[in-house]
Design a protein that fits this description.
Enzyme class: oxidoreductase
Number of helices: 14
EC number: 1.14.19.-
Organism: Streptomyces rimosus subsp. rimosus
InterPro entries: FA_desaturase_dom (IPR005804), Fatty_acid_desaturase (IPR012171)
Helix content: 55-70%
Strand content: under 5%
Radius of gyration: 21 Å
Structural class: mainly alpha
Keywords: Oxidoreductase
Oligomer: single chain
Strand order of the largest sheet: 1-2
Distance between the termini: 29 Å
Shape: globular
Number of strands: 2
Length: 380
């Protein structure tokens, strides 16, 4: 798979951006009843799986019931987190005008409060994708994933804490969304930190009480198996989310950028950076659904507010457009992207002097020449 692209003139970059704008405009104009049916069907299926799973776990002293209930609950939590919570909070369904399925009213089954997550993810990550020093999701402040990030001896252990993060991913993200590092650096007030910490504590307490106190008590004699089932379901959801998200952002062929490279970034250049800073995963329709369609990470980063069910249908058009302009389109099966991601984690755990740093093509196709045009970022 190619990891380089030819030099593109500013005119070619903007022509490329215009073609992507056209794809987006066509989807926006075509949104309608079929899309609404899709999201309401997913909500119905998810709630049915959760209700059924919890009902079965009420008699989970029987091993077959425990396995069935745990499987249903884990699947429900994956759907709620990946296809519903993540995408609804991106505003993908706001156009319907349904207050029950709206980015301003949805609160997901996740310890991190929706508003805190939308700030760190929708605003910071999707605006400054893979920009060292600006995108806090580039390693989540604890992992070194780019040669442009300063190495510290603690990074020698990053393979260990990257692995430990997976089963508790929801709690790691909740703490990350507090932006404690920003408060230490003086970029966030102590008062705001305390307010956000109180909001997290309230939400986390509700989540903990729901899964580990309320529903186990309702199960009566099956309380302990029910509690273990909830713990298992949450753990499986966390590992799955961690895997999909890391494989969409950190395979070896995905580029990172410096702050200087995005100065005066135009719309077309922003599109280029999203493509170069993301990776897709190949799989079946069920795989795409369970990934929240984040298996189409490139399309999601280009158009984060388009309905997720549309990513599969536009992916071939985006890939064809990239091929026309000689722009790499990173995609592959889960096992290959997973191995590549871990290769990156291991490689950047070592200091630059101990291993030759790898960065796919330092040719800056996203900014071949300084652009005089002001930044014009997409809605995200």
């Amino acid at each position: 798979m190619a990891t380089t692209a030819p030099d593109l003139t500013p005119e070619r970059i903007e022509a490329f951006g215009a073609e992507l704008d056209q794809i987006r405009a066509e989807v926006v104009a075509d949104r309608g009843a079929a899309d609404a049916r899709y999201i309401h069907t997913v909500i119905t299926v998810q709630r049915g799986l959760e209700a059924g799973g919890r009902a079965v776990l009420a008699v989970s002293l029987l091993p077959p019931a425990w396995l069935a209930g745990t499987g249903m609950l884990a699947t429900a939590k994956i759907l709620e987190n990946m296809e519903l919570g993540h995408n609804i909070l991106h505003g993908q369904w706001d156009w319907m005008g349904d207050p029950a399925v709206h980015s301003t009213t949805w609160e997901w089954d996740f310890p991190s409060p929706a508003e805190a997550w939308k700030h760190t993810h929708n605003h910071l990550h999707h605006t400054y994708t893979n920009v060292a020093g600006r995108d806090r999701d580039l390693g989540y402040t604890i992992l070194r994933m780019s040669p442009d990030q300063r190495w510290h001896p603690a990074h020698l252990l990053q393979p260990l804490y990257a692995a430990l993060l997976a089963p508790v991913f929801e709690w790691g993200i909740a703490l990350y969304d507090l932006e404690v590092d920003a408060a230490v650096a003086g970029q966030k007030s102590a008062r705001r930190l305390v307010t956000d910490a109180a909001g997290l504590a309230r939400k986390a307490l509700r989540q903990f009480a729901k899964d580990y106190v309320f529903f186990p008590l309702l199960a009566g004699p099956s309380a302990v198996p029910c509690l273990l089932a909830n713990l298992t379901a949450n753990t499986l959801r966390n590992i799955w989310a961690h895997t999909v998200i890391f494989c969409g952002h950190f395979p070896g062929d995905v580029r990172t950028f410096t702050e200087e490279q995005i100065e005066d970034e135009s719309r077309g250049e922003w599109y280029l950076r999203q493509i170069q800073g993301s990776a897709n995963l190949q799989g079946s329709p069920l795989f795409h659904l369970l990934s929240g369609n984040l298996s189409h990470q490139i399309e999601h980063h280009l158009f984060p507010d388009l309905p997720s069910n549309r990513y599969a249908e536009i992916a071939h058009r985006v890939r064809k457009t990239c091929a026309t302009y000689g722009i790499p389109y990173v995609t592959g099966p889960l096992h290959r992207q997973y191995a590549s991601t871990w290769g990156r984690i291991l490689r950047h755990a070592l200091p630059a002097r101990a291993v030759q740093e790898h960065q796919p093509s330092r040719t800056d196709v996203s900014k071949p020449v300084p652009s005089p045009r002001p930044i014009n970022r997409r809605t995200r």
